[in-house]
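Table S2 (text version). Query chain:
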Amino acid sequence: MLEYPINIRRFFLNIVGGLSLVLGVIGIVVPLLPTTPFIILASACFMRSSPRFHRWLHQHPTLGPMLDNWHQHRGVTRKVKQRGAFMIVLSFSFSIWVIPHLWLNAALLIFMFVLLAWFIRLPVIESLDGTKESH
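Corresponding structure-token output:
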């Protein structure tokens, strides 16, 4: 009987986690490609397959705090919310300006408003000084 030297489930989760991490990092600079969902997916995959990568991701100076805030509070800081809303509007506006098709511009505009409505409704977590920020 053949024995596999590597657990196929762990291998698959590492591949999906790695691809999600790459897409999340690319999403930082590419409009319309989300960052946070891919980073959260990478964290979930690494949690089940590679404690070393999971620990590295959560200790990363940029990505770690975002993951910790999401896992602990299911929310974002006011600063992240303001930056995120600005980047959503900026990236969608640029895409609408560049694309010459009216029907596609209308679809992008609708998608932008849906995404903004979801994003703005995320709970605001406590700031670094420990005081609760309000909506």
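Notes on Table S2: The mean pLDDT is 82. Residues 1-74 form one domain.
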